[in-house]
Amino acid sequence: MAIKKQFLxxxxxxxxxFTVPTDNAxxxxxxxxxxxxxxxxxxxxKLKNGSFKGTVNLEANNSYEFRYLVDGEFVNEAQADAxxxxxxxxxxxxxxxx
Length: 98
Known about the structure:
The model has no long low-confidence stretch (mean pLDDT 95). The protein is mainly beta. Helix content is 0%, strand content 53%. It has no helices and nine strands. It has a single domain, classed as Sandwich (Immunoglobulin-like). Strands 3, 6, 7, 8 and 9 form a five-stranded antiparallel beta sheet that branches. Residues 23-96 form the AMP-activated protein kinase glycogen-binding domain.
């Protein structure tokens, strides 16, 4: 898994590209505090190599909790900037700091 951050010079926005390599997944989405944990709002596109990829514009100078939803199972980003415990989910969430 990978996260790529591209800060825009013209406005306080960061283009964040999420990439999730997978061999046999059918659906992957990124859910988090930036999209109200809505699985339908940020689906990732399946590439020819089998991985999933998508880009989200997020406001800079903030941090966001998120997880991947891979065929209905929550998965954390191994390369996240940090991890935060979430009592509601009973698990850790990945954190991205911009």
